[in-house]
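Exercise: predict the structure of this protein bound to protoporphyrin IX containing FE.
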Amino acid sequence: MRDGYSRRQLVKDLPQAVAIVEEEMRQWPENHPVSVYPSVQRMVVDQLGTLMSGTSPKEHVDDILTFIHALEMVYMARLYPRFMAHTPKVRRARRRVEALFERVLAAHEPALHEGESNLSDILMGMRRSAPDFITDKNLFVDSVGPFLAGSDTSSSATSFMLYSLLKHPDVLERVREEADRLFADGTPTAADINNMPVTMPVTHRAGQETLRLHPIVPVMVRTVANSFEFAGYWIPAGTSVWVAMAVSHHLPELYPDPERFDIDRFLPERREYGQLGAYAPFGFGPHSCLGQGAAQVQMALITATILHRVEIVLDPPDYRMKLDSIPVPTPNRSFKIRLTRWRQKGE
Ligand code: HEM
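Solution:
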């Protein structure tokens, strides 16, 4: 599924990806506070659904989020009892997500488009060639995979990036200059987005530093296959272990003044993140994040589109981020911005 989740899926239709952001921004009333996270979440889910499954999930975004939240809390985080996955609200949301899935299936029959395949094409190709390997139930679960894996993560990371920039106006202005260059000829090109460290170095470093300071997935959960000893402790096979890989993001011996947002840590001459085990926002090993390229494109593209098109301020100006921590750290709804004006062409 690597190709279905890759950055290519977003980069192949940048005008569409940008249009989704602009459409959501048009809902922001001028000079009124807007809660950032839910708005960014609608952008992220619409981009992932439209570009990875080929069907806009626009009218179903709330249902998708209700359904995914129940799955995460009951089956992944195991913080809610099982019946919470079957309340009338969740059952209604699930039925609507299933209806969306039927539309995705219909849009992909009968032919696979050679060379242009998105995640749904790939899944359905696998279903045809190996029906025992991928059952109808798997096909449904895997088809909602981008929402499951992407809706909280990419949205939180992009919201944290906006917050960090609003708190550091000097960096924000440098990111805006890059955004203006990116949009100088209309829409960003694939070459620009595929080469961000060169074409948008400040934006790229701001994204990396955001992921260091605000790790979205703080632990990886694993079951021990072979017993081993670690730091004087015997860990028997079958034990459930949490690998808290994000702890190192905040260690002063790796990152001097670790709570400071400092994008220059990611300059080649500093490379603080390059020390052994210092930086793992997307996990590590064979199950590291399949969507990491796509997520970084979303963070940069959504931020660049917003800063290029509008002026925004924090509301209130001295706001300090509050977190909701379950199942992953997400910005609280109290994180709000105010659109002060639309920028004119050529500004
Ligand atoms: C900034 C945003 C994101 C972060 C920080 C993030 C982080 C992670 C981490 C740490 C893992 C490994 C979990 C583990 O090993 O237990 C993971 C797995 C995964 N992520 Fe992401 N993710 C992000 C966005 C996305 C997006 C947008 C998608 C898809 C559209 C995605 C798809 C996946 C998938 C499919 C896996 C499972 C890979 C496997 O098990 O082989 N992620 N992600």
